[in-house]
Amino acid sequence: MTHKLKIAVTGSTGYIGERFLKAALMRGHQVISLSRRPGGTLTSNWIKYDLGSREPLNLPSDIEVIVHLAANTSFKSALSECEEVDAAKRIVNVAKDGGIKLIFISSQTARSDAPTSYGRIKFQIEKMVINSGGLVIRPGLVYGGPANGLYGELVKLVKKFYFLPCFFPPPRIQPIHVDDLAMGILKVAEYSSLNIGPVVMLGNVNSLSFNYFLAAIARCHLHEVRICIPFPSIFIRLMARVFARMGGGISRLNSLFNLVEMKTKNDLNLLDLNLRPLDAGLHVSGSNNRRQLILEGYAFNVYIVSMRPKKINMRNYVRMIEQLRGGVSLQFPFGYKFWPFLIALIDSKSPKLFPWVGEYKWRLRAATLLSEASPVGAINFLGASGDGGFILSFFGILSALLSEIHLKICRLILAPFIKLVFARKFK
Question: Structurally, what CATH architecture does the domain formed by 6-281 represent?
């Protein structure tokens, strides 16, 4: 991409809008923020915009793309369905009259017979945008980043309750990380000759169980354990009908039970968009690589000093790998993170039979130097922990001798198998 765009974004202070704004600015585009109020330091160019306002929208003449993200997501809002559709119609007319590329961010719930007004409104706007020559993007369940939107409601639910409903049959969802969605929108905006549309579907190629998604929030985002209780899905449908006029979380949850599976593979390939794994995206940073580095450093440090390391040691190790080794973890097999003593089975002076051995030994030596530089490590390596007397010293030496014999036996028996496991993983 060489051409820098001037993009107008409605709803730029919302869940997706903020992340899109940040991504667009990082790629060198100029962004005009259209929202009810300025959103912070990123929105230097701001124009007041309200879905309920009938004032004409005056945009700079050099705007090339309009990304329409603004939507009424509050069930307590006084904005009617007709008013929101009329607001979108004004955006469509501005884009059509000015020859501006229009991208409307819709929803997987968009259908003429959607169970919520949100889905029905999205479908009506889709028809207007397509008829005017614009593009529609239908994302799956958006998650990650700040806990806002529907994702934020789900995080609060999982955080509040120790027991989670295990729906049967479970709804199937196609999640997409908010930053991956922002990048997908940008690519649709940037590529003028892309043979794609008019409806672009973005989400996980393979749908997954909503029950799994809730459990993943607990495991990866909150780092907690939750117990799942079987819950018939029919109850949600009945409750949604009873409280249809009230709206709220029940209606939004019920919409997940009525999703039509999207065929996203072709669109993802055309955009060259690689979605991050769910477990990685659910971490606050959007990636679990740093956590992998922490576990890696933890394993090395426990192996070296035989005690739980301080947090400062972990931070130093992560910074060192990020600055000197590209920040990529070795991705130890699961057991090596929690049984660091097994590292001894491959810690030998054997030749470098596999490519990964050199990198492994470099990191082990570097972790050793960091440990020696710490107060705990210095005491451990210098043996300056004090005089425990002859008996304690004798049993300490005996314990160390027996441990070394045990490790040598284990290494002799298991090392070839472990090296094959690593060889397959890193070949």
Answer: 3-Layer(aba) Sandwich (3.40)
